[in-house]
Design a protein that fits this description.
single chain, about 120 residues, mainly beta, 4-stranded antiparallel beta sheet, about 0% helix
């Protein structure tokens, strides 16, 4: 009923930039918070950045000052601008939507959803 589709990953050199996008589709009525997580090989998934419906943001200490999260509530999209990338930013990045309220078959449902992940590789 609800899908998150990410785009924008790739291979870059240290110091370069990438822009990740995530679009939520379905009969969506509202989304509470949208976020980006990442998971490096052999490590746990960690929160990178989060933005709520009012536009308040929070970031992992490791990306503060380098990454910027933004969202378009009307289009149900979230973007992560990543600058000054470092090799330690290499990971699979996942989009997450928290408390998505949507309609299906005349009913209103809610749930949390994940995107499929997009690979970001930063070479030194």
């Amino acid at each position: 009923q609800v899908q998150l589709v990410e785009s924008g990953g790739g291979l870059v050199q240290a110091g370069e930039s990438l822009r990740l996008s995530c679009a939520a589709s379905g009969s969506i009525l509202s989304i509470n918070a949208m976020a980006w997580y990442r998971q490096a090989p052999g490590k746990q998934r960690e929160l990178v950045a989060i933005i709520n419906s009012r536009g308040s943001t929070d970031y992992a200490d490791s990306v503060k000052g380098r990454f910027t999260i933004s969202r378009d509530n009307a289009r149900n999209t979230v973007v992560l601008e990543m600058n000054s990338l470092k090799p330690e930013d290499t990971a699979v990045y996942y989009c997450h939507a928290d408390r998505v309220v949507y309609s299906v078959g005349g009913y209103v449902r809610n749930g949390d959803y994940w995107g499929q992940g997009t690979q970001v590789t930063v070479s030194s």
